[in-house]
Amino acid sequence: MERIARDVGVGGADLSVLAGKWPDAADLLYWRMNEIKLDRMEITQADAQVMRDLQRVCTVCGSKRRCEHALANNPSDPAWQKYCPNATTLLALAAERAAKTRAH
C-alpha cells in the first residue's frame, strides 16, 4: 500500500481516504476550473503533481455541499475563495494563464 501511495505521490493514509471517495470525488474541482477558465489537461501536462494535489485536496474537502450549491446557483460569486482549500492554487494558476495570454 505504501509503495502504491508513493507511486501516485500521496501518503498511505491519504491513499486509503482517496480510494474510498473515487471516481467522482474531484468533479467539483473540474467544475470550478471550468468556471475560471482553467484547462485541467493543460495543467496536468504542465505539472501532474499540482493537478494530483488539487484533486487530493478537493477529494477530502469538508465544504463540498457549499461548493456544489455555489457552483449550481452563482458560479461567478467570489465567495468560494474564502472556503475552498484549493483557492490559492487555482487563483495562482489563473493568474499565470492570464500573464501568458498577455505576453502573447
Individual helix count: 8
Q: What class do helices, strands and sheet pairing give?
A: mainly alpha
Distance between the termini: 45 Å
- The gyration radius over C-alpha positions equals 14 Å
Number-wise, the strands total 0
Shape: flat
Taking pLDDT < 50 over at least 5 consecutive residues as the criterion, the unreliable ranges are none
Order of helices and strands: HHHHHHHH
Helix content: over 70%
Q: What's the main sheet like?
A: none
Describe the overall structure:
The chain has eight helices and no strands. The protein is mostly helical. Helix 3 packs parallel to helix 6. The chain is flat and about 45 Å long. It starts with a helix and ends with a helix. The mean pLDDT is 86.
